[in-house]
Structures are given as structure tokens and as C-alpha cells.
Amino acid sequence: MAKKSMVEREKKRQRMVEQYAAKRAALKAIINDQSLPMEERFKANLKLAELPRNSSATRLHNRCELTGRPKAYYRKLQLSRIMLRDLSSNGQVPGMVKSSW
């Protein structure tokens, strides 16, 4: 089980990303628009730099929904490999059986 503080930090980052997504996208559109004057694009770049760092989507890290484990994460199921193995062994993941040969 991961530390509660790390799980809460990721939740906080997720909320910030959602909160600033529209503003960040608008500023990036201005920055990438070559038809605008250089001064306007530079001002947009400075405003983008003033936004909180944790509002950037690249700072998010996927974590297991049950344990908070950051490594060996399956995106489709939002679980770590360990929890996926446990749940499938107990028959709680539909269509998945532990193979043995």
C-alpha cells in the first residue's frame, strides 16, 4: 500500500490539471499561432509560465486504484499487476483466468 500522502498528492494534481486545462489550452493556441505578432505570443508564453507547475498534465502519474502503487500499472483496468493477479485468481475479473500448464 502506497503512502496516503502520495495518493492524495496525485488526486490534487488531477484536480489542478482539470481546473487549468482550458486556460492552458488557450494560451498554447496563442503561442503556436504564427500569424499573431511576436509580442503577443511572448506575453502568452509568460502567462503560461506563471500557471502552477502541478497544473501540467505531464506531471500526473498513474496509480493503482486499490493500492496506490505507481509501478506496473495497467491503464485499461487502472490496477497494478499485483492487484490484477489477486483479483483474477479470486475470479473477480470477468474473462480472466490464471493460466497453468
Describe this structure in words.
The chain is mainly alpha-helical. It has two domains: 1-61, Helix Hairpins, CATH 1.10.287.1480; 62-93, 30s Ribosomal Protein S14, Chain N, CATH 4.10.830. It is built from three helices and two strands; from the N terminus they run ααββα. The chain has helices spanning 4-32, 38-50, 81-89; strands at residues 73-74, 79-80. A two-stranded antiparallel ribbon has the order 1-2. A hairpin with a 4-residue loop joins β1 (73-74) and β2 (79-80). α1 runs antiparallel to α2 (38-50). The longest helix has 29 residues, at 4-32. The radius of gyration is 20 Å and the shape is elongated. This is Small ribosomal subunit protein uS14. Belongs to the universal ribosomal protein uS14 family. GO terms for molecular function: rRNA binding; structural constituent of ribosome. InterPro entries: Ribosomal_uS14, Ribosomal_uS14_bac/plastid, Ribosomal_uS14_CS. Part of the 30S ribosomal subunit. Contacts proteins S3 and S10.
- H/E series, N to C? HHEEH
| Helicity, as a percent range | 40-55%
Please state the structural category.
mainly alpha
* Largest β-sheet summary: 2 strands, antiparallel
Query: Which residues sit in consecutive blocks of at least 5 with pLDDT less than 50?
Result: none
Provide keyphrases for this structure:
3 helices; 30s Ribosomal Protein S14, Chain N; single chain; structural constituent of ribosome; 2 strands; 2 domains; 4% strand; 101 residues; Helix Hairpins
Outline:
The chain is mainly α.
Element layout with pairings:
Layout: H1 4-32, H2 38-50, E1 73-74, E2 79-80, H3 81-89
